[in-house]
């Protein structure tokens, strides 16, 4: 049995399935139906992939990572060699293009696999209007009155002994 083959209660690690662009449930089926278009279902295990919504996360991480590396190389080249501008057009732009397009798909797959693995879902505001005692609507007068009644009851109990 492969390290990527698993049952739904024990899915494979997101990094393994993500970098291979495979289904996060079984680790074998194709995750994409196009270059960046997610398939509707896994062709092997039938996992419904409608839960997946990586939004702009992959693009942000890829642009930040690749941009940082390529711009560092650009700066080093400019400071040490000071080539004409056409050298930068020939070297820097293709590096950015290839770097971003080459890593965007695996990063998107990794984020989708992470959503499945960690059971990520949209945040919910379950506590709106339910602050309870000690929350935003805490009435200190009631607490003060309660403490006064307890003190009076203790005094009465002490006097009665």
Architecture blueprint of SSEs:
Elements: H1 14-19, H2 57-80, H3 85-117, H4 140-160
Helix pairs in contact: 2-3
Features:
single chain; 52% helix; 161 residues; mainly alpha; 0% strand
Describe the structure.
The termini are far apart. Helix content is 52%, strand content 0%. It is mainly α and 161 residues long. The protein has a domain of 104 residues.
In short:
The chain has 161 residues and is an all-alpha fold. 52% of the residues lie in helices and 0% in strands.
Helix content: 40-55%
* Share of β-strand residues: under 5%
Strand segment tally = 0
Tell me the radius of gyration.
29 Å
Give the CA-CA distance, first to last residue. Answer: 77 Å
* Main sheet characteristics: none
Global mean pLDDT: 85
């Amino acid at each position: 049995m492969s390290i990527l083959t698993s049952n739904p209660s024990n899915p494979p690690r997101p990094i393994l399935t993500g970098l291979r662009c495979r289904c996060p449930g079984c680790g074998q089926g194709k995750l994409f139906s196009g270059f960046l278009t997610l398939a509707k279902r896994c062709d092997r295990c039938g996992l419904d992939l409608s839960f997946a919504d990586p939004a702009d996360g992959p693009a942000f991480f890829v642009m930040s990572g690749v941009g940082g590396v390529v711009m560092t190389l650009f700066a080093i080249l400019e400071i040490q060699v000071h080539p004409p501008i056409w050298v930068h057009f020939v070297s820097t732009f293709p590096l950015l293009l290839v770097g971003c397009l080459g890593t965007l798909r695996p990063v998107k797959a990794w984020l989708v696999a992470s959503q499945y693995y960690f059971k990520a879902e949209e945040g919910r505001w379950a506590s709106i209007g339910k602050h309870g005692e000690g929350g935003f609507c805490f009435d200190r007068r009631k607490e003060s009155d309660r403490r006064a009644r307890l003190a009076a009851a203790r005094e009465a109990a002490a006097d009665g002994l």
